[in-house]
């Protein structure tokens, strides 16, 4: 039985107008202030919560009551948002 012919496929090249313009290697590095401020927010949030619990919920601001927890955790969440922008 005769062997069938093998077809040669052309190599696919994507069109140039569809290619992404910015690649990962051309992105600029993060500014210096970004990791510094993120670490500062983490330390601030943890410090706020530690003071709140060790003072018997009397400090930093007694009238805020449980909103002191929101301030501490909010600072830590803000630092995580900043760190997600870090390259």
For this entry, give a set of tags.
single chain; 87 residues; 2 helices; 46% helix
Structure overview:
With 87 residues, this protein is mostly helical. Helices cover 46% and strands 0% of the residues. It has helices spanning 33-54, 67-84. α1 packs antiparallel against α2 (67-84). The longest helix is centred in the middle third of the chain and has 22 residues, at 33-54. The model has no long low-confidence stretch (mean pLDDT 85).
Which helices and strands, and how do they pair?
Layout: H1 33-54, H2 67-84
Helix pairs in contact: 1-2
**SS-based class:** mainly alpha
Beta fraction:
under 5%
Estimate the mean pLDDT confidence.
85
- Could you give a short account of the major beta sheet? none
Can you count the beta strands?
A: 0
- Indicate the overall shape: elongated
Helix content: 40-55%
Multimer state: single chain
- Listing every helix as H and every strand as E from the N terminus to the C terminus, the arrangement reads HH
């Amino acid at each position: 039985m005769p062997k069938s012919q093998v077809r040669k496929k052309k190599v696919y090249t994507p069109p140039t107008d569809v290619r992404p313009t910015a690649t990962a290697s051309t992105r600029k590095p993060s500014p210096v202030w970004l990791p510094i401020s993120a670490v500062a927010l983490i330390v601030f949030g943890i410090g706020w919560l530690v003071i709140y619990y060790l003072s018997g919920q009397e400090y930093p601001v007694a009238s805020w009551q449980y909103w002191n927890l929101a301030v501490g955790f909010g600072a830590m969440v803000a630092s995580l948002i900043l760190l997600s922008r870090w390259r």
